[in-house]
Design a protein that fits this description.
By secondary structure, the protein is an alpha/beta fold. The strands form 8 sheets. A 7-stranded parallel β-sheet has the order 11-12-10-13-14-9-15, with helices on both faces. Strands 16-28-27-19-26-25 form a 6-stranded parallel β-sheet, sandwiched between helices. Strands 2-1-4-3-5 form a 5-stranded antiparallel β-sheet. Bound molecules: zinc ion (2 copies).
Length: about 750
């Protein structure tokens, strides 16, 4: 008899089961077990041993669920790292990592069987037995060449493909034949072909000649630098301004790995904004690309997962952060595009992992090569690059004829004084919009998501009060007249007089929705205005409709939120307007500066990618603000240097790890009690490194009060020790009879 440690999708560690050898179960297999009296679960076999664990009664593993293990050895090590680093259990990792239908649970075995799914299949086609030999084939041709040339052509194509792919049984994937279903149906009726459903497989290595784009000299240099990084087993950070042609470099790298039969993963922050990239990859790597994201049906996600588990390698997998959990056979390369994007961080469910960091960890765990790409790298990655941990590669020039846009900083306070501001539009912006519209070009207007945290700002000089300890903008809380730091809880009286210019002109900002779309239609009645934001693009089709209609110039002005800053490539855009940069600068977040810079650079990157020179108008009341100046000179390095110095002075990442504990409850007093209990348990160990508890930026959510505590661990300190101490503090809090009623979530590396 054997014994197995099995991970179940429960917030617990592992469980032991007895294992009958005849089941031929191996590590990584999905198995069915009974847990409790009336529940059947899918579990993952973590280890197998012949030593009986010290339990009086062991239940047996009932059956094996799929013919292939669904967790690869590399995946197993990644799960372990995630559970350890992000303070979660393996069960929690399993809940998140496996698509729901790939891990069915039920109250009976029959029900569980009904819920089980199969790996994604596709049609395979072979010639009928009679047409298998050379002679029969030429006889067929001779007989039918004149009357049915199309049929003969298809039959010969199938025969040729079977030879080319060395398919011993003659079966080839239907998608390679490239004829319409009716034609194949007719061939089957005539008994010329056989059709079978089989697990979708990829083309064998080296048999495809990919049509690769030609590289410029700069791209070529970057490509060989990346190869050099890989030879040294280092992560490559590819820093290339928007339009510098990172994609072409990716394509060459992908081709190299696929040709060698290895699998490639391309991670993107959001699927809808990357449709242009995906289309391009699908065109070049035809029949090999698998996309994965939350908009797929649960069935499709489950079947895709199982198919990849059964694959033998040579896969190109493109998807959002959860793609990192897909089984990757023969892993070769992981590309994390837009590596700075916060979309890689899971923020609402345990474990709160960052897929970019997981990719970097994968490069340590197995021999996978990792490329991080960005026009505005995160300071964490940049720091790793300048310290020599990553191999840093910079692409400074725009590719082809593209030139960087002209940046125009438009002072809203001055415009207001001069009477040059109408609603939310300064004269500078109106003039440039006009210029574009009259020459038949397009305009993108970027409007921030409504400010989620109201802040105080001087309307005369643009000054906003900040926390002296934490260097973040203070938040105005609705209920009180005080300003509060939502990191450390520092508060100060709200004053009407500006401490900077001494004018009595302080006002609350960040409230309300700006009706930019309405205003722009009033200012430019002839222009056709489209809007792209969370409200108009609820579905992928709605989103695609807006994007493609703007692409086809069915609209003159596109008004949008964050989403317009991402990877689109609109040819006709010559003016981009950022309506209120102040909002970006005033987010109460230690990353506000970095984010503001990234966002403005990305929005700016949309202008003039093809035509002569685009213009970007940035409206702000703080034209002298360093970040605005860095954007104006497109100087990433200066921004990074200054910002790193600030981070160092205040002990923020990358000079520390920030860990956030979040608590929520409908009973405010109970919440406060639990939060203070946890804070004092943490303080007993970590002292001054603990900040809070404070109310969360969003104080109430779904009728529940929310509070948080932040813990700062210096970079270089042992995170392992820190995690052990945190676990102790959490356990102590959870033992406390009142405090234990309040759920606590932990977010490592916020
Ligand atoms: Zn002032
Ligand atoms: Zn503070």
């Amino acid at each position: 008899m054997l014994y197995a440690q099995v991970v179940l999708p429960l917030a617990q560690p592992m469980y032991s089961f007895s294992l009958d050898e005849s089941l031929a179960v191996e590590v990584g297999d999905a198995v069915v077990v009974q847990f409790g009296s009336s529940r059947f679960y899918t579990g993952i076999v973590w280890s197998i041993s012949d030593v009986r664990p010290d339990y009086p009664r062991l239940k047996p593993i009932l059956r094996k669920l799929y013919s292939h293990p669904i967790l690869t050895p590399e995946g197993q090590r990644l799960w372990e790292w995630i559970a350890d680093y992000y303070l979660a259990t393996l069960g929690e990792v399993m809940r998140l990592a496996l698509p729901s239908l790939a891990k069915p649970s039920a109250t009976s075995l029959t029900e569980l069987d009904e819920r089980s799914i199969e790996p994604a299949t596709e049609q395979f086609i072979a010639l009928s037995e009679e047409l298998q030999s050379e002679e029969s084939l030429s006889a067929y041709r001779a007989k039918h060449e004149r009357r049915a040339p199309r049929r003969v052509e298809t039959v010969e194509r199938i025969a040729a493909l079977a030879v080319e792919r060395k398919a011993e049984d003659g079966f080839v994937p239907r998608r390679l034949i490239g004829v319409e279903p009716q034609h194949l149906a007719a061939l089957r009726t005539k008994g010329l072909i056989r059709i079978e459903e089989r697990i979708r497989e990829n083309l064998n290595s080296a048999e495809q000649n990919f049509l690769l784009p030609t590289l410029s000299q700069a791209q070529d240099v970057a490509l060989s630098e990346i190869r050099k990084a890989h030879a040294e087993h280092k992560v490559a950070l590819l820093h290339g301004v928007t339009g510098s042609g990172k994609t072409e470099i990716y394509i060459h790298l992908i081709a190299e790995h696929l040709s060698a039969g290895r699998s490639v993963m391309v991670l993107v922050p959001e699927i809808v904004i990357t449709s242009q990239l995906i289309e391009r990859l699908e065109r070049i790597f035809e029949g090999r690309t698998t996309t994965y994201h939350s908009r797929l049906t649960p069935l499709r996600r489950g079947r895709t997962f199982l198919r990849l588990a059964a694959s033998t390698g040579g896969e190109l997998i493109v998807g959002v952060r959860s793609t990192i959990f897909l089984p990757m056979r023969r892993p070769g390369l992981i590309i994390v595009d837009e590596e700075h994007d916060m979309g890689y961080k899971q923020s609402d469910m345990q474990p709160r992992y960052n897929a970019r960091d997981c990719a970097v960890v994968m490069s340590r765990l197995c021999d996978v090569q990792v490329v991080l790409g960005s026009a505005t790298p995160s300071l964490e990655s940049y720091m790793n690059a300048i310290s020599g941990k990553y191999h840093y590669i910079e692409l400074k020039e725009r590719w082809g004829k593209g030139v960087l846009p002209e940046i125009i900083i438009s002072d809203t306070i001055r415009a207001l004084k001069r009477g040059e501001r109408k609603t939310h539009f300064n004269l500078d912006l109106r003039d440039n919009i006009n210029r574009s519209l009259t020459s038949g070009e397009q305009v993108i207007l970027f409007q921030n998501r409504r400010g989620y945290a109201p802040y105080l700002q001087c309307r005369t000089c643009g000054y906003s009060p900040r926390c002296p300890h934490c260097n973040v903008t203070l938040t105005q809380h609705k209920a009180s007249s005080r300003l509060e730091c939502h990191y450390c809880g520092f508060t100060m009286e709200r004053s009407l007089v500006c401490p900077n210019c001494e004018t009595q002109d302080m006002a609350t900002m960040g409230f309300g929705t700006e009706k930019v779309e309405e205003e722009v239609s009033r200012l430019f009645p002839e222009a056709r205005v489209l809007r792209l934001d969370g409200d108009t693009s609820t579905s992928e089709t709605a989103f695609q409709r807006i994007v493609s209609s703007f692409e086809q110039h069915e609209g003159d002005i596109l008004v949008g939120t964050q989403i317009v800053s991402k990877g689109f490539d609109f040819e006709g855009v010559s003016t981009v307007g950022i309506l209120n940069a102040d909002n970006l600068l005033s987010t109460p977040d230690f990353r506000a500066t970095e984010r503001a810079f990234q966002l403005m650079m990305q929005v700016a990157g949309r202008a003039g990618r093809h035509n002569d020179r685009g213009r970007v108008v940035i409206q702000t009341s703080q034209p002298k603000h360093p970040v605005i100046q860095y954007v104006a000179s497109a100087d990433y390095h200066a921004m990074a240097r200054t910002e790193l110095a600030e981070r160092k002075a205040f002990g923020y990442p990358p000079y520390s790890h920030l860990i956030r504990f979040q608590l929520h409850n409908s009973d405010y007093e109970l919440l406060r009690y639990a939060a203070h209990t946890l804070a004092s348990n943490l303080r007993a160990i970590f002292g001054q490194r603990v900040m809070g508890p404070v109310s969360s930026a969003i104080e109430m959510l779904r009728g529940e009060h929310r509070a948080e505590i932040i813990l700062k661990i210096e970079a270089g300190a042992s995170m392992k020790r820190a995690r052990e101490c945190i676990t102790r503090a959490l356990e102590a809090t959870r033992k406390e009879p009142r405090a234990k009623k309040v759920p606590i979530s932990v977010d490592v590396d916020i």
